[in-house]
From TrEMBL:
One of its GO terms (biological process) is proteolysis. This is Aminopeptidase N. GO terms for molecular function: alanyl aminopeptidase activity; metallopeptidase activity; zinc ion binding. Keywords: Aminopeptidase, Hydrolase, Metal-binding, Metalloprotease, Protease, Zinc. Belongs to the peptidase M1 family.
Length: 874
């Protein structure tokens, strides 16, 4: 059942071209496919039989070169069709007719029904649920697709490439033909059919070609496409400016669908998107939604080069396209908004979520070596850590060298299906460097730890720095070899200004150290006074730092570090240390007391000048409970919550005037404005509001309720509702009700309504979640809704999900088993919250393990759920 990277062999057959005819119907779609094939000269295999993949297909007929095949010529099992004999010396044609039922397809891979439209999701292996094929990314072919369907139900018929013909048929039916001139693997195939409105625009490329841009949505969403369209144009321009990459077809289409397992999909010329990452109007979408939409639109657009023109040889190479493309979308968003803020958000997500994956039984390298179900490997590790690995290459090679490497990569491999190794080779060749040790980042799992010690020698005016690296064991990898780790650093003088130092005979104020050994020492000369070290600037490598720091030193860096990332990080670590002190006091039943240093640090922050207000808001935000949990040997969710709330409430009381003042300065009605200043004002003001809500005073409630009542934008409305939901305010129920009434027609807003309640810390949350499962608007077949309710409860509500009685775990397992039959991909995502069971106390361990065992023992478990649950227990 397990597939191994080491078993890779080239395909035995190639497909030169394919013609697909779809006779579309919600329940009985007929697919006719004509594959022009031949032996692959590169394949050493001796076999003459042809094995095609296909799942859940009903065969109507099959022919070889026009001659019908009979039962003795081929065999079909659950996942394959084997044709005993095909010509070895010449091309041949396989013609297959089969039937599928999109409406019964609740797994949402292959062809399925979303609301009233038909659409496809083929990555990674959904095409085999459409027709028999060589469903592997290294088989690239040219597609010609004809769609026919009822004209009233399916007036719009889309597929990849260019429209080459259309016409009417009898019985109110019509047809449209599409041809994609670029050879592609079948995972990039797409079709869409439905009653869709088209929002159109155009883009002129750097070489002067005019590209038609079309966004297709249901009628009631036409008023929410402007931002997505602008984002697409921004992305197209950015890829030209930053990478010299231009779009290739004459048409770029995006379709938004309500039912989607992931965020979006980069099908050639025809992206299919979760509505969540397309639709936005100031009153329905938050500032973060706006940013995510631009980011995801960019991500899918950038895939046209990093993914489609150059694709993956096999699915073990997934990070080749995903890590690189995430890196590209991060750069894009940073350029469009604030590099400082974007970097902090990305690192924060990486450290809370990917580091947890790395520390769990599900840990795997960015290039995994084995899988049971590939859909389980669309992970934070492959995506986000993969992006960090690309970022380290850029750090090591410099921006110019990195760009040269990218140019060479695209030049060498355009039109090919390649490997991570090819990517690193191009980086080496373009820069004349050697990256053999760096390659270990692709094969070693786990988060490395850097243990740092320093010593200042006043007589010699030297700073001695020693860094040791190690990496905890992960499944199948007990011992790790040292990695090549770029460590950016700077030094600060006593007055907070950058300190100049000499290293390797060069005078500098900052440097990137190359860490390659298990332990290395560095000497910084000509330092007349003891400097303060700012290490791992910009989070130059995805590692944990183990470096003793005094609170004073952290407060100093929080005030003065010129590196925006490390300045934020100093504030975080200051609070982290304080919170862990408080947790110890809690464990020892001691009264809590907040260190004055923290109050002072926040006080001066609130009184300092700031130009990037979004950044300022981040500086004010306390570390997440899940980040804190990741730092604890035995996670104590209640103590974490209690200690963090104590810090927040104490700060609110001590700095009430500051929070009030800053709130009022930035509180104004500028709905519909999405420039950095307006967004920054909202973020900063709402950060203050969140502190003020801790006071539970009538003044603070007045402020909050007024904001809720008067908000004309979703950011402010949600910020207010969120603090109300996490309070005991008597108006809570009526506010929630009002919000629901106002937005019941807007599915994406109702998702927020579910998620907010599911992540509430208030005592009766579990009962609320159970009640919401019965709400008429809840639907197990809609992934966004499942993520909003079950996902938010199990992933964003540590206190209630980990309730001591184990009811949260039992609830989750119930839902996983219900989803297992409906939608295995979504089900297996939900299981991951149990994977970390070893990190909790004995009592909780036992309860979590029981539910995992219950899941594994269930009959007819999908591969998806089986893999995650069984690995979690291993
Ligand atoms: N390639 C898509 C993206 O990241 C993700 C699609 C993954 N789908 C899946 N079913 N595993 O842009
Ligand atoms: Zn992607």
């Amino acid at each position: 059942q397990t597939v191994y990277l080491k078993d890779y062999t080239p395909p035995e057959y190639l497909i030169d071209s394919v013609e697909l005819d779809f006779d579309l119907d919600a329940q009985h779609t007929q697919v006719n496919s004509r594959l022009t094939m031949r032996r692959n000269p590169e394949s050493a295999a001796a076999g003459v039989s042809l094995v095609l993949t296909g799942e859940e297909l009903e065969l109507i007929s099959i022919q070889l070169d026009g001659n019908p095949l009979t039962e003795s010529d081929f065999t079909i099992n659950l996942e394959t069709m084997t044709i005993q004999q095909v010509p070895q010396q010449r091309a041949f044609v396989i013609s297959i007719e089969n039937r599928i039922n999109p409406k019964a397809n609740t797994a949402l891979e292959g062809l399925y029904l979303s609301s009233s439209m038909l659409c496809t999701q083929c990555e990674a292996q959904g095409f085999r649920k459409i027709t028999w094929f060589l469903d592997r990314p290294d088989v690239m072919t040219r597609f010609k697709t004809t769609l026919s369907a009822d004209k009233t139900q399916y007036p719009v018929l889309l597929s990849n490439g260019n429209k080459i013909g259309h016409g009417d048929l009898a019985n109110n039916r019509h047809w449209v033909s599409w041809e994609d001139p670029f050879a592609k693997p079948c995972y990039l195939f797409a079709l869409v059919a439905g009653q869709l409105e088209c929002v159109s625009d155009s883009f002129t490329t750097m070489s002067g070609r005019e590209i038609a841009l079309e966004i297709f949505v249901e009628q009631h969403n036409v008023d929410k496409c402007a931002h997505a369209m602008q984002s697409l144009k921004n992305a197209m321009r950015w890829d030209e400016d930053s990478y010299g990459l231009e779009y290739d077809l004459d048409l770029y289409m995006i379709v938004a669908v309500d039912h989607f397992n992931m965020g979006a999909m980069e099908n050639k010329g025809l992206n299919v998107f979760n509505t969540k990452f397309v639709l936005a109007r100031p009153d329905t979408a938050t500032d973060s939604d706006y940013e995510h939409i631009e980011g995801v639109i960019g991500h899918e657009y950038f895939h046209n080069w990093s993914g489609n023109r150059v694709t993956c040889r096999d699915w073990f190479q997934l990070s080749l396209k995903e890590g690189f493309t995430v890196f590209r979308d991060q750069q894009f968003t940073g350029d469009r908004t604030s590099q400082a803020v974007k970097r902090i958000q990305d690192v924060n997500a990486l450290r809370t979520r990917q580091f947890a994956e790395d520390a769990s039984p599900l840990a795997h390298p960015i290039r995994p070596e084995a899988y049971i179900e590939i859909n389980n490997f669309y992970t934070l590790t492959v995506y986000e850590k993969g992006a960090e690995v690309v970022r380290m290459l850029q750090t090591l090679l410099g921006a110019e060298g990195f760009r040269k490497g990218c140019d060479l990569y695209f030049q060498r491999h355009d039109g090919q299906a390649v490997t991570c190794e090819d990517f690193v080779n191009a980086m080496e060749a373009a820069n004349g460097v050697e990256l053999s040790q760096f390659r270990r980042w692709y094969s070693q799992a786990g988060t490395p730890v850097l243990t740092v010690s320093q010593h200042y020698d006043a007589d010699a005016q030297q700073l001695h720095l020693t860094i040791q690296q190690s990496c905890p064991p992960t499944p199948h990898q007990p011992d790790k070899a040292p990695l090549h780790i770029p460590v950016k650093l700077g030094l600060l003088a006593a007055d907070g200004s950058p300190a100049t130092f000499v290293i390797n005979g060069q005078q500098q104020t900052d440097i990137t150290l190359n860490l390659t050994e298990a332990e290395q020492s560095f000497v910084f000369d000509e330092l007349a006074e003891k400097p303060v070290l700012s290490l791992l600037r910009g989070f130059s490598a995805p590692v944990n730092l183990n470096m003793p720091r005094s609170l004073e030193e952290l407060a100093f860096l929080f005030k003065h570090d010129s590196d925006t990332f490390n300045r934020w990080e100093a504030g975080q670590q200051l609070v982290v240390q304080v919170i862990f002190g408080l947790i110890e006091d809690l464990h020892n039943h001691l009264p809590l007391h907040l260190n004055a240093l923290v109050v002072e640090a926040f006080h001066s922050l609130l009184n300092a000048e700031a130009d990037d207000l979004s950044y300022q808001a981040l500086l004010l935000t306390l570390p997440d409970e899940s980040y804190l949990a990741g730092q604890m040997t035995v996670i104590d969710v209640d103590a974490i919550h209690h200690a963090r709330e104590f810090v927040k409430t104490t700060l609110a009381h001590a700095l009430e005037d500051d929070f009030n003042r800053v709130y009022l300065i930035h509180h104004r009605d500028e709905s519909g404005k999405f420039d950095a200043d307006a967004i920054g004002r909202r973020r900063l003001k709402n950060a203050c509001l969140s502190y003020l809500s801790q006071l539970e005073s009538s003044d603070s409630y007045t402020l909050i309720l007024a904001q809720f009542e008067q908000a004309h934008n979703m950011t402010d409305q949600m910020a207010a509702l969120s603090v109300i939901v996490n309070s005991q305010h008597p108006a809570k129920a009526s506010c929630l009700d009002k919000f629901y009434q106002q937005w019941q027609q807007e599915a994406l807003v109702i998702d927020k309504w579910f998620a907010l309640q599911a992540s509430s810390y208030m005592p009766n949350t579990f009962a609320t979640v159970q009640a919401l499962m019965q709400h008429p608007a809840f639907d197990m077949k809609t992934p966004n809704r499942v993520r909003a309710l079950i996902g938010a409860f199990s992933q964003a509500n540590p206190v209630h999900f980990h309730a001591k009685d184990g009811e949260g775990y039992r609830f989750l397992a119930d839902q996983v088993l219900a989803l297992n039959t409906l939608n295995p991909q979504i089900a297996s995502r939900m299981v991951t919250s149990l994977a970390q069971w070893r990190r909790y106390d004995k009592g909780r361990q036992k309860l979590m393990k029981q539910q995992l065992q219950r899941i594994v023992m269930t009959e007819q478990l999908s591969k998806d759920v089986y893999e995650i649950a069984s690995k979690s227990l291993a």
